[in-house]
């Protein structure tokens, strides 16, 4: 039973980020969820496990806030090595791994490499990046929950950030988008480079006789759109409104002074189209220039952690971060995000 051939492995990981760190080296999985399907996208096997931290002192309280998993439950789980080896035994043969972000896949690779666990040859599908291409402008980040809403996938909000639920939503989102995109592009073709797994439209300068004429839905099989010809009109068939302004009764001046509830912090971050996650006492933000953790105390910013160029800088408000070229002059969350 272990060596069953699967087509796609859908994977989700919830992780613990050691306090006052942002890089992947200080990141450990605490939950993992997998849905394995055949070529017709029928579910053939599922896998859902919690994972024990290597050291309870690495536990970040924000892990409980985000993933709803308390420290005591985490520490009663099986070790990371045991869970990953069991995962590898259960899934030995597959063509594609589907994840929401590249961070999830990179974490999986790092942790399996740590224990000498080898995976079969496969291609990776970063669904967020794919949807940015076929539903947006290819540049603006599309959030997971927004994608579920746009695709009409029913979900329970309080189930988000549980790996066993998120991976199921990931699977449903992929199936819905794959099916609809196939119908919308059934009369269209592209050109596939079987060596690089890049796809091109007919007018691309990289198209030559060595390429294979294919249907456009090959992008759901681990083939990536060429950056040269991958413009919106060529690949976007969903035209999701990814830059919708959040409906609110506040103007910008009012938002500056809102109490920092989870909902209001989401409002502030959404205004700037950020890639972020929010907890009761911290905001995690990813920008093209680095990663931020904004620590809060009540309705004010208390401290910042910024990682840039492989180095971390920790500062309280009012301190100049030279490498970030940013002066932290305010305790106001809106103002600090505005200056990032």
Any chance you could write out the topology, listing elements then pairs?
Layout lengths: L4 E13 L9 E11 L5 E8 L10 H7 L3 H5 L4 H11 L2 E7 L2 H13 L8 E4 H9 L8 H8 L11 H22 L4 E5 L4 E3 L11 E4 L8 E2 L6 H4 L16 H5 L5 H10 L3 E4 L3 E6 L2 E8 L2 E9 L2 E6 L3 E2 L4 E2 L5 H6 L2
Parallel strand pairs: 1-4, 4-5, 7-9
Antiparallel strand pairs: 1-2, 2-3, 6-7, 6-8, 10-11, 11-12, 12-13, 13-14, 15-16
Q: How would you sum up this structure, described in words?
A:
- The chain is of the alpha+beta class and 340 residues long.
- Helices cover 29% and strands 28% of the residues.
- The chain contains eleven helices and 16 strands.
- The protein has a five-stranded mixed beta sheet with strand order 3-2-1-4-5, sandwiched between helices. Strands 10-11-12-13-14 form a five-stranded antiparallel beta sheet, covered by helices on one side.
- The longest helix is centred in the middle third of the chain and has 22 residues, at 163-184.
- The model is unreliable at 244-250 and 316-327 (pLDDT under 50).
